[in-house]
Write a structure and sequence with these properties.
Number of strands: 2
Structural class: alpha+beta
Number of helices: 2
Order of helices and strands: HEEH
Strand content: 5-15%
Distance between the termini: 97 Å
Radius of gyration: 27 Å
Largest sheet: 2 strands, antiparallel
Shape: flat
Length: 100
């Protein structure tokens, strides 16, 4: 009898928060529908869609840095990187021509 009571009590401890959480999520979804928040963007080509990328941290074998930006920000980030690397290469080439 003691074990049955203990089993029922432990079941209630685990089931009650799950039921409360389900009710909370239902209320939260109803609230977001009523509040008029913008819908989540699902089109991966949309300029405001957020993409994340993991980059390794220099000097660490396992640590990663997570970078999240919109598609428009990624385009600008890539253009800036290409522009900077092109300027670097041009600087090296012009420097080698002047030394001759």
């Amino acid at each position: 009898m003691k074990y049955i009571f203990l089993a029922l009590a432990s079941t209630l401890v685990f089931v009650a928060p799950v039921q409360a959480q389900d009710q909370g999520t239902k209320e939260a979804t109803e609230t977001t529908k009523k509040s008029g928040k913008p819908k989540k963007i699902t089109d991966r080509r949309h300029p405001d869609y957020v993409r994340c990328r993991s980059e390794p941290v220099i000097g660490s074998l396992t640590k990663k840095r997570r970078l999240c930006m919109t598609n428009a920000a990624w385009v600008e980030y890539i253009r800036k990187g290409s522009r900077d690397s092109q300027e670097f290469v041009d600087g090296l080439q012009s420097g080698s021509n002047q030394s001759n």
